[in-house]
Design brief:
Largest sheet: none
Structural class: mainly alpha
Helix content: over 70%
Number of strands: 0
Number of domains: 2
Strand content: under 5%
CATH class of the largest domain: Mainly Alpha
Number of helices: 18
Distance between the termini: 28 Å
Shape: globular
Order of helices and strands: HHHHHHHHHHHHHHHHHH
């Protein structure tokens, strides 16, 4: 499964396999379970549109909170022997929240627990990404990071299939199929996901050793904010390679996130059958697994920057292909194209960034990285909304995202040609 990986690298890759289960659940079943709790309840008999709005607001809260606390948590975790403590705490709280979500009886408690669990989940990823500098070398980062995304996509399908099966036999598709209560189906879905998440994480908790760190100092919490400000100032004024990369990343990852977040909306606007869409989206996970492994192999022969540029170009072509979307088959081809580059563009961006930042401050820098990552998708979603409100079709709306990839391509080329003290 993890050929040629060291023990530390295998343990690190496994966390991608574990946390991806929660990601998959959040993209599919959680919005459905939330609406089942919310629609038709007081006050004022909540409608489907209102439930969607409440859920969107909750996601926005998570995005803002994570963007604000990410650099702080990362900077604190950079201190000697602190990464494992922060990481383990975030995972434990996230897993606990995931289990409790299944037992929530009201939509309010469901949403509050979900927000807290998602914040802990995202915080664990900030620290996890920064661990890459500790578990492997610069020469192996591309391959190891790609393995993480590859097996994460494939591994997430296992608990998801259990959760989906529980949803089906609880009457989710038809009451004639109901073998257990809807509440029990929800409990099973969340619990299986949480158990998978924590079990696959144990090797990393046991085997991780923090190699790069900063020394602890008195009043460190109060000094963190000044340190973050100095780092941001340094990036803006001196470290142009990191600056141009973050600008490029903000643009192209905005396009990636917008397509992922709106995949169901695209199919729905085209009037495509929901079951067919779900089947293609699950298949996309498998394609993303294969695509990530292919780019992992290519990283042995080619530099990281050009490989990311290939992924950006691939997404640019996918956006233009959206102009032809009409049938479920077209949707499937679009999903296949997305899958080919989805994992690779994220994994290679992670490893590229790891190579051009100071390893002893990787937590702080990945907190900044998360600001650009988590804060990006609003812009693409705003473009989709603007095109739709102006009377445009979903085809034109998705094609408009090509601009993000085109400009991101240019800034990444600039970053790749800009000298760095660490190289990339």
């Amino acid at each position: 499964m993890f050929k040629n990986l060291t023990k530390s690298e295998k343990s690190w890759v496994l966390y991608d396999v574990g946390n991806s289960a929660f990601t998959m659940l959040a993209c599919s079943m959680i919005p459905i379970w939330f609406k089942e709790l919310a629609i038709g309840t007081a006050p004022g008999q909540i409608t489907g549109d209102q439930a969607t709005a409440y859920y969107a607001m909750a996601v926005a809260v998570v995005t803002i909170v994570v963007a604000l606390i990410g650099p702080v948590i990362g900077a604190l975790a950079d201190r000697r022997d602190m990464k494992k403590i922060f990481f383990t705490t975030a995972v434990a709280l996230g897993v606990t929240g995931c289990i409790l979500n299944g037992f929530a009886l009201s939509w309010v408690s469901f949403l509050v627990i979900y927000v807290l669990a998602k914040i802990c989940y995202a915080s664990s990823l900030t620290i996890y990404d920064s661990m890459l500098n500790d578990v492997t070398t610069d020469e192996r980062m591309d391959e190891v990071s790609s393995y993480g995304y590859a097996w994460g996509y494939l591994g997430s399908c296992i608990p998801f299939c259990v959760a989906l099966g529980a949803y089906v036999i609880s009457g989710g598709l038809s009451e004639s199929l109901m073998l257990i209560s809807p509440r029990l189906g929800k409990i099973i879905g969340f619990t299986v996901t949480a158990i998978w998440w924590i079990l696959v994480t144990i090797p990393l908790i046991r085997n991780y050793r923090q190699v790069n760190y900063t020394e602890r100092s008195k009043g460190s919490v109060s000094h963190v904010f000044g340190k973050i400000f100095r780092t941001l100032k340094d990036i803006a004024l001196r470290d142009r390679k990191v600056l141009f990369f973050l600008i490029a990343f903000f643009l192209y990852i905005d396009g990636v996130g917008t397509i992922i977040d709106n995949c169901i909306n695209i199919g729905t606007d085209l009037g495509l059958p929901t079951v067919g869409q779900v089947i293609f989206l699950v298949a996309t996970q498998v394609v993303a697994w294969g695509g990530s492994l292919v780019f992992a192999k290519l990283s042995h022969k080619y530099a990281t920057g050009p490989l990311i540029l290939v992924c950006i170009a691939g997404y640019f072509a996918v956006c233009l292909y959206a102009l032809t979307l009409k049938t479920l088959l077209h949707f499937g081809i679009l999903a296949f194209g997305v899958g080919c580059f989805q994992g690779s563009i994220q994994s290679l961006s992670r490893s590229y960034y790891s190579k051009i930042i100071p390893p002893e401050n990787s937590g702080e820098h990945f907190g900044i990285y998360d600001i650009f990552s988590k804060g990006a998708s609003f812009l693409g979603s705003a473009v989709l909304a603007a095109v739709k409100l102006a009377g445009g079709t979903i085809n034109i709306a998705v094609a408009s995202l090509a601009v993000f990839f085109a400009v991101g391509f240019i800034f990444l080329r600039i970053s790749d040609k800009t000298p760095s003290s660490r190289g990339a």
